[in-house]
Amino acid sequence: MSENNGITIGFKEIYEQLLGVSSNVQDLNNRMHNVEKSMDLLHETKERSHEAKNIAKRVDEDLEKFKEEQARQRRWLINTILSLIGIGLTVIGLGISMLSLFL
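and the corresponding structure tokens:
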């Protein structure tokens, strides 16, 4: 008679253990799928934030150009007003000179 000095595992126990391993593998597969989806969303978010940064940069550049144009137009308006004042004073001066000729 032979002596058995160990634990004997039956087919039922092996089957149950394999089912547990299969379940764990399926859980890992689901987690990996979720990680892949998260990475895709992260990549998309990165692209959108890069686009938003570029748009903000262009808006900032456009705003700076607008400010420069506004300052140029303000200088032109001031110069025009000063020129008109000068012309007006010249006309008044000429008018006074013409009056003094007739008086």
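(Above: one complete record from the training split.) The mean pLDDT is 91.
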